[in-house]
Structure formats: structure tokens, C-alpha cells
Amino acid sequence: MEYTDLNGFACSLSFNKGVFQIESRHVLVIAKFNGKWLLTEHKERGLEFPGGKAETGESLAHAAKREVYEETGGLIEDLEWFAEYMVQSEPPFTKTVFTGTVSAIEKIELLETKGAVLADDLDVDSKFSFLMKDEGMKQIMERVKLDGKWDD
């Protein structure tokens, strides 16, 4: 799927591994804790899924778990690859989307965010980061819901 993000960059989204030529070094994690969506409140952007950049020598799975912990205090289980998207910024980059289940949320000192926010639904409104509002994120969230991983 091709779309333009809210920064004006051309993007490509795929639910298949290995589609993009640029190796992914960024992660985004869509997770639930006790039946609620785990979000973080970025101090400037608002509510969004936790994520970030892998450190040198770090696997994407480890980066995903680390970023969730650093931004929310959440401990991730059942981490699974879900999708990737490439952003044609300068320089271009690819981000890997994971899903997972949070087993616990620890109280930690937070630097970049205001911490964990648990949501019953993903009705994106003015409290949400612009990163949650582009067509790619809408498709990712719809596909996560259709996946049925967390159906009761």
C-alpha cells in the first residue's frame, strides 16, 4: 500500500516480511495489557504506540521490548512481527511493527514520555499524536483488529 504521511513523505506499507531494500532499524509496538491498548503519552506529540530506534548491534525484537519498557514500564510477552513500512524521508528509513502482550507495567523513571496510557479503544482524536493519524497507521490498526489476536 502506498500513501503520503502527515509530514508529506511518500510511504509504503507491507504486511509481508522482506519487501523493502532498506534494513529496518526502527520499531513500533502495538500491545495490550489486561484487555486494553497500551499507548504512551509523548510529552510533545500526544498519545501514540511506543517505539523508537534500535541501538547499534541490537536486534529489532530487543529494541521493541526495550522501547516499550523505557516509554511505559511495560514488560512484553508474545512479541510477533506484524508489518513494516518505509518512509521516503531524507534519509529514508524502514520501521518494523510488532504486536505483543504486556504481562506487567513497572513503575520506572521516564525520560521521553509521561508513561503508560491504557485505552479501551483506538478512536484517534485530538489527544493523539499526528503519527497515529496517517493512512498507514489507520491500515495497521484496522489489520490488527481484524487479526483477532485479542478477541475475547
TrEMBL record:
<dbReference type="InterPro" id="IPR000086">
    <property type="entry name" value="NUDIX_hydrolase_dom"/>
</dbReference>
<dbReference type="InterPro" id="IPR020084">
    <property type="entry name" value="NUDIX_hydrolase_CS"/>
</dbReference>
<feature type="domain" description="Nudix hydrolase">
    <location>
        <begin position="27"/>
        <end position="93"/>
    </location>
</feature>
<dbReference type="InterPro" id="IPR014078">
    <property type="entry name" value="Nudix_YtkD"/>
</dbReference>
<keyword id="KW-0378">Hydrolase</keyword>
<protein>
    <submittedName>
        <fullName>RNA deprotection pyrophosphohydrolase</fullName>
    </submittedName>
</protein>
<dbReference type="Pfam" id="PF00293">
    <property type="entry name" value="NUDIX"/>
</dbReference>
<dbReference type="InterPro" id="IPR015797">
    <property type="entry name" value="NUDIX_hydrolase-like_dom_sf"/>
</dbReference>
